[in-house]
Structure prediction request, 112 residues.
Amino acid sequence: MVGEKEREKAAFEAGIKLGALFHQFIGTPVSFENVEILEKAMESCVKLQPFVADVKVKINREKLKEKLSSFNYTSLTGEMLEAWVKVEVEGEAVSAHLRWDEEKRYPLMSLE
Prediction:
């Protein structure tokens, strides 16, 4: 089927992008002082990778506030992170989403 191979590759690439984002940045020091900078840095790093058409990263400010230490920073956790990526391979586009699933207590990726 025309496009099936390209869609499959785009879906694979989307998973790679979100998995790399997650594992590269979890544990990064974060505070309200650098949260926007960190979101933009994460987006910038993903955009460098092949096939990425768009990316958006959001760090949950409420979760950040809950986790702040007495030194006004904490380490980024999976609970705080949400990301979207759009990947295009040879004219086929796929969008994927990384979000924390509270019921499973686990970060899940899904195609949209």
Q: What stands out?
A: The chain has one domain: 4-111.
